[in-house]
Amino acid sequence: MARSRGRDSLGPATQRGRRRRIVHVFTEGKVTEPSYIEIIKERGTYADSAPAVEVKIANLKAPGSQRKPLKLVEAAARLMREEKRAAEHGKLKKEFWPQVWCLFDRDQHEHIETALKEAREADVRVAFSHPCFEVWRVLHHKPVAGMFNGVCDQVTARLPYAASAENIKIVLPEQIERGSFEQAKRRARQMNAAHGDHVPLSSRDPYTDVFTFVEDGLGIVSY
């Protein structure tokens, strides 16, 4: 049988006349990060020059025991090796090579610096938050100041809808105001700048660089 053209192991080759870039995402949370990603995929304004992007939650059905930062990175590194081989075999241009991302938090996890180091070595991108992803959610509404000492509940309490939400883990469309990405990114950079470069990421409280995933991973410039 003749080899089919226009498809490869990375998924459908074209979308609206352009090849798609596949982005695989490993998330620590089972609900929060995937629900956020779904919303901004629908609302986002994409960079005109960026290839079309298909996002796949790589560990959607993974149990909690496989969602620790180091476990996420190990699984992501294996997938990255497979995807690189497929991209090279398919002779894809670099701009269409798949990306593999991990989204995880500091929380009370161990081996954070090891996970970050292994991710860099494996060409796996990481969006990291301290103490948790909710810092990024809060920044959509107001600046964040003061340390949380690794207690995510203190961050969640600052969400404007925390008192009324039945399940605070689910990100709802109405909880993300239109046009809020730019101000959230600006506030995050100001917050992160309070930490010196010599301070390890695992000790930067509070911190988040989820905006890099939005821009570099998803190719979204605003929502």
Question: In words, what does this structure look like?
Answer:
The N terminus is likely disordered. The chain is globular, with a radius of gyration of 18 Å. 31% of the residues are buried. The protein contains seven helices and ten strands. The chain has one domain. 34% of the residues lie in helices and 19% in strands. It has 223 residues and is an alpha/beta fold.
Computed Rg: 18 Å
Cα distance spanning the termini:
46 Å
Beta-strand percent range: 15-25%
How many discrete domains? Answer: 1
The description of the largest β-sheet is:
6 strands, mixed
Provide the residue-averaged pLDDT: 91
**Structural class given helices, strands, pairing?**
alpha/beta
Low-pLDDT windows of residues: 1-10, 12-18
Order of helices and strands: EEEEHEEHEHEHHHEHE
What would you call the shape? globular
Total helical segments = 7
SS elements, strand count: 10
The helix fraction, in percent, is 25-40%
Descriptive keywords:
single chain; six-stranded mixed sheet; alpha/beta; disordered N terminus; two-stranded antiparallel ribbon; 10 strands; 223 residues; 34% helix
Set down the secondary structure blueprint.
Layout: E1 7-8, E2 11-12, E3 14-15, E4 18-27, H1 32-43, E5 45-46, E6 52-57, H2 69-89, E7 99-105, H3 112-122, E8 125-130, H4 134-139, H5 152-156, H6 181-192, E9 207-208, H7 210-217, E10 220-222
Parallel strand pairs: 4-6, 4-7, 7-8
Antiparallel strand pairs: 1-2, 3-4, 5-10, 8-9
Helix pairs in contact: 2-3
